[in-house]
């Protein structure tokens, strides 16, 4: 039994009534064919929000720690991830991160929608960080249009360290599809960099965030590597 439509309807209703979510630009979203959703990342709930409010089902990546938590909490999180098609990935393992892009590629080749955060991890200081080139690799590999999304105010729903979700209004702005040449494996590093920068420019316009010309990193990865953000 496919529970996704019912879950999406329930969560969408909650977002629009309990949180007064405002969504603009849905008319820009392609009705069929493969689509890459590229968004800024402000909160843990971003993937749930995008999955609920987009007109088509969106598969997302998320760090595996969410589903590896012992006890009932980890089991509930795994069930939620399975329901809304969130793919857990070990971000501290380079080979696993690369395999994660392959999973996105599989969905795009089936004509489905795949969501990605080019920043790699959520911003904790409000800045929009430099995008990593995986989004461009997928776009040039498949020819799928990239739909940029700007999330505004989702960071106030559940600030870092908070265990509770606040009923705070937020906005989702959907931009026009961006089309790039499908060149498969003939794409170059320079091409991926330029494409990623164009996508990040659109996300910045939609989100209104100030920019930082550096890569963001997860505090957990910084701790493991002995560095700080």
Largest β-sheet summary? 7 strands, mixed
Strand content: 5-15%
Output the strand order for the largest sheet.
1-7-6-2-5-3-4
The overall average pLDDT, rounded, is 84
SSE order, one letter for each helix or strand: HEEHEHEHEHEEHH
Computed CA radius of gyration, to the nearest angstrom: 17 Å
Helices, by number, come to 7
Low-confidence stretches: 221-229
- Give the terminus-to-terminus CA distance: 44 Å
Number of domains: 1
Output the structural class.
Answer: alpha/beta
Coarse shape = globular
How many β-strand runs?
A: 7
Kindly describe this structure.
- This protein has 229 residues and is α/β, with parallel strands linked by helices.
- It has one domain.
- Helices cover 37% and strands 14% of the residues.
- It contains 7 helices and 7 strands.
- The chain has a 7-stranded mixed sheet, with helices on both faces.
- Helix 4 (94-109) packs parallel to helix 5 (134-142).
- The longest helix is centred in the C-terminal third of the chain and has 19 residues, at 189-207.
């Amino acid at each position: 039994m496919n529970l996704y439509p019912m879950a999406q309807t329930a969560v969408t209703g909650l977002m629009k009534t309990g949180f007064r979510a405002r969504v603009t630009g849905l008319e820009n979203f392609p009705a069929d064919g493969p689509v890459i959703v590229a968004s800024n990342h402000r909160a843990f709930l971003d993937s749930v929000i995008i999955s609920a409010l987009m007109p088509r089902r969106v598969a997302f990546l998320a760090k595996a720690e969410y589903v590896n938590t012992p006890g009932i909490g980890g089991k509930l999180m795994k069930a939620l991830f399975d329901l809304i098609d969130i793919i857990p990935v070990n971000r501290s393992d380079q080979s696993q991160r690369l395999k994660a892009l392959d999973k996105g590629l599989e969905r795009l080749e089936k004509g489905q929608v795949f969501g990605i955060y080019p920043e790699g991890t959520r911003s904790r200081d409000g800045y929009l960080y430099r995008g990593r080139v995986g989004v461009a690799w997928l776009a040039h590999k498949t020819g799928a249009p990239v739909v940029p999304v700007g999330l505004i105010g989702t960071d106030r729903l559940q600030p870092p360290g908070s265990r509770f979700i606040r009923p705070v209004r937020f906005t989702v702005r959907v931009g026009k599809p961006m089309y790039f040449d499908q060149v498969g494996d003939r794409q170059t590093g320079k091409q991926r960099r330029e494409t990623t920068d164009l996508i990040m420019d659109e996300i910045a316009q939609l989100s209104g965030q100030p920019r930082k010309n550096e890569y963001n990193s997860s505090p957990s990865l910084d701790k493991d590597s002995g560095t700080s953000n």
